[in-house]
Amino acid sequence: MENRATAVSRDPAPRRFDPFRVLTAEERSHHLDAYARFLEERNGALDLPGRTLARRESYFADLAEKPVVWEGFIDREGFYARFYGRDARWVDPQTLWLVAIAKANQGESYGVEQELKRLIARGSEGMDGRMLHVFLEEQYHGRILVEACRTCGIQLRFEPPSWQARLVIASVYHLPERMRFTLILAGEVLGTTIFKLLVDNCHLFSSEPPVEQRLRSLLSEIWFDEALHVAYLRALLGPLALRTARSLLPLVVRNVMADVPQLSELGCDQAELMARLRDGLELPPGLDWIETGSQGGR
């Protein structure tokens, strides 16, 4: 998978797509079928009680057999002060990047953990198997970020978000399905944009090429998944839900920037994020079945 991620980062002519374009009935059917086939190839067998995807487990086994460790400086005290508290002390760019990747998934990790507990307790009968893959992939994102931090000498432990964030997450997971998926789509669109930004910033570790390659591989796995989740939800939802998700983006961006102010320090403030979103989402290569279409509805 590391070779694939390297190819992803070097794609010379990226394709972009409008995450809110309304698909025709034929396009929706094509996208949903193609996504199901792609998941079988990418993830392998799904074990919900064990909370595993066979090929993801193989990926982590390969990482464990070939450890890579950053030899340069990391401000561990500064990392923990910024990640676990509200300390705004200056930290070097590499440490800042690590804080950003850890914070970018903190709330989602908590929400996915609650959803998986509910699914395992009550069973998944009647649930779209593609959505089960989405939830398990999101669980792996937390493991990916733990591994990225470990590569740089940081032992990351996710803690529950604030009570306000927990309340919002609980409210979202009790909404009717279409409303939930509309909110999730807005979050996934932003997540795709943010993780592509974080992949691009792996150059901060270019003084040690094996580390940069490892980090690009790890972060590209998340970027790849997020783009796929957006394409899946776009095909699942109708015109009203897509318009609503688009209208929610500014609110979602403000909330994320409040939680992850390190993005601004990395050169991507709220205005820059909105500009990137207006340009459409960059697609990783190998997803030719996702049709780009036009950026309508602005």
Record keyword descriptors for this entry.
single chain, 298 residues, mainly alpha, Ribonucleotide Reductase, subunit A, two-stranded antiparallel ribbon, globular, disordered N terminus
* Helix and strand composition category: mainly alpha
**Radius of gyration using CA atoms only:** 18 Å
Tally of DSSP helical segments: 13
**Would you report the number of β strands?**
4
- H/E topology pattern: HEHEEHHHHHHHHHHHE
- Name of the CATH architecture: Orthogonal Bundle
| Gap from first CA to last CA | 37 Å
CATH class value: Mainly Alpha
* CATH T-level topology: Ribonucleotide Reductase, subunit A
Report the sheet with the most strands, covering strand number, pairing sense and barrel closure.
2 strands, antiparallel
Integer average pLDDT: 87
Q: What fraction, in percent, of the residue positions are helical?
A: 55-70%
β-sheet strand percentage:
under 5%
Shape: globular
Poorly predicted residue ranges: 3-9
Please indicate the count of domains.
Answer: 1
Oligomer: single chain
> How is the largest sheet built, in terms of strand order?
1-4
